[in-house]
Amino acid sequence: MPNLANPTLFLAVARRLLPWLWALTLLLFAVGLPMSFNAPPDYQQGETVKIMYLHVPAAWLASFIYGVMTLAALGTLVWRHPLADAAQKAAAPLGAGFTFICLVTGSLWGKPMWGTYWVWDARLTSVLVLFILYLGLIALWRSIEEPGRAARAAAILTLVGAVDLPIIKFSVDWWNTLHQPASVFRMGGPTIAPSLLWPLLVMAIAFTMLFLTLHVMAIRNEILRRRLARLTMIAAAEGDALAMSTP
Amino acid sequence: MTHIPHLGFIVAAYAIAVVVILGMIGAVWWDYRDLLGRLARLESERERPR
To answer: Has residue A1 got a pLDDT over 50?
Structure first.
């Protein structure tokens, strides 16, 4: 297997891979969106169940992306993988974006179904905490100038914040919440009718492919940003040397 | 036309999702173009004879 830890090799692989990733993502959305729009209404919720095809994939990605960042944080602290920090930093804004979609679509689904846009129950609150964690990590990277220190600080905060993931997952079992319990990933199989489940699964895969595509692009940006910083320093050093040698 | 209850909520959810997703795609793409441009400018400055 080629060593993808080599940034130059990663850039070459990304250049070849990205058109295929985009094609697959667009194909999945081209299949998933019509399936979602043509899915039958829920017997209780009616057509508002259409919001599920955005909300559930976004909620899944909100946790999944943080899981990816947790692995990358381990890569930074334990294995000192050269691309682990870039992968973690590149994922944070995407995680914040998908968590925002999850919160807003959940709120817009909650108003007609629960009669309120927001309630401080365990599931909603723990997802809001996740959103704040993403924003905090982005702020942390921007506030520490030295890249190595920023990477270590962000990795530690990411690992500490990972405790929120099981809380999000099991909040609906541990506490009395307005949010419904798990109906797809649960022991005993999904409780959703196949006519609603299939569009949901296709949309979940489409969202996941979109994240993977954007993540590869964002890691590529981080590699280029580091190359730019290194070349800027070299150019500044050469400029200083030239100024000193000029009489 | 069939009346769909809560249509406004459904349309708003899809509209916001589309805006956020297009925003993320645009931000990543704009960042890439900006970095390529800055790298090219830096390379050309370094290659210019002094």
So the answer is: no
